[in-house]
Design goal:
Blueprint (H helix, E strand, L loop, with lengths): L6 H14 L5 H4 L9 E4 L7 H10 L15 H12 L4 E5 L8 H14 L13 E5 L2 H10 L22 H9 L6 E6 L2 E6 L10 H7 L1 H4 L5 E5 L17 H7 L5 E5 L12 E3 L3 E4 L14
Parallel strand pairs: 1-2, 2-3, 5-6, 6-7, 7-9
Antiparallel strand pairs: 4-5, 8-9
Length: 300
């Protein structure tokens, strides 16, 4: 059964799923049949496994980090991937901040987890293709400078090898890790639906989103929804003034498309907060985090 949802009914379906945690889709629950496309959404997974950190330290001639240290393994990420697979997802989106310190070894751990569940980018349950919709956030590009390299060394006298910095050559590392070409902004088609992913650019936002969307206007215009995802919130949309470091360019690009549905991470706010969901000129949804949840400002 081929069906098209309005953005309002799409958002209503999301609210239903978050509220009830059902195993079938919203479309099926209301008798509309199987949806045309199904995809999982994650953000801010901040993977930092001990084995990956130890491997980098070994390249530096160092042993394991001494004393207590917070590592973020891939066990919860794997559970999320398997949960999506059980619900017959056609794609999985991660809206940035995959590698906590922006290290190649950390991003490779994400890829290893992905291919464990989806070898050859396909489900082992029924062979259906499952598309990667991954983008980098600020941590993927600059995480080591935030942490001071604490996962890798105890003080600044040690130099992390250049080939472990994703930002030294993101295009090369992305190709090596995920087996696909890197593009700062890209568009993929999943079962006839367009998905636009914009990697982190700078704290002020991703200015090239505006000409990119304009160049693809003929493909995007119409009643059929398309999906946009970046790390930052589009400014003046979901989370409003509480959004951390929002992007003005994505709002500028999407405001002429009422059929656009945007997903964003970065702010680490709970999905239970109603202002993670916004409908104005387009639809905007905050995707929370699989790592460290932040409380409402002033209510920590």
């Amino acid at each position: 059964m081929a069906i098209e949802f309005s953005r309002r009914s799409f958002l209503g379906g999301l609210s239903f799923l978050f509220a009830h945690g059902v195993t079938r889709t919203y479309a099926e629950s209301v008798g509309a049949g199987k949806p045309n496309v199904s995809f999982g959404v994650l953000s801010d997974i901040h993977i930092n496994p001990k084995a990956a950190c130890d491997a980098v330290r070994a390249k530096m001639g160092l042993g394991s980090v001494g004393g207590p240290h917070r590592y973020i393994e891939t066990d919860i990420l794997e559970k999320a991937f398997r949960w999506f697979d059980e619900r017959q997802c056609d794609a999985v989106m991660i809206a940035g901040d995959m590698a906590d310190d922006g290290l190649t070894a950390q991003l490779r751990a994400v890829a290893d987890c992905w291919y464990k569940v989806f070898p050859k980018n396909a489900s082992t349950k029924d062979g259906r293709p499952v598309e990667k919709l991954f983008i980098g956030g600020n941590h993927d590009f600059f995480g080591v400078s935030y942490s001071g390299g604490a996962s890798i060394h105890e003080n600044g006298k040690y130099k992390i090898p250049d080939d472990e910095w994703l930002s030294k050559d993101m295009a090369k590392h992305w190709k090596d890790v995920f087996g696909e070409d890197y593009a700062p902004i890209y568009m993929k088609d999943v079962k006839g639906y367009k998905f636009i992913g914009a990697h982190w650019h700078e704290w002020e936002g991703v200015p090239d989103v505006v000409p990119f969307v304009k160049a693809h206007e003929a493909e995007l215009r119409g009643k059929k929804p398309f999906f946009f995802f970046e790390h930052q919130q589009p400014i003046d949309s979901c989370l409003g003034k509480w959004a951390f470091n929002p992007d003005p360019y994505s709002t500028e690009a999407l405001k002429a498309f009422p059929n656009a549905v945007a997903f964003s991470g970065h702010s680490h706010k709970s999905l239970s907060l109603p202002y993670n969901y916004w409908q104005g000129e387009f639809t905007s949804i905050g995707t929370a985090t699989l790592c460290t949840l932040c409380g409402e400002y002033g209510r920590e």
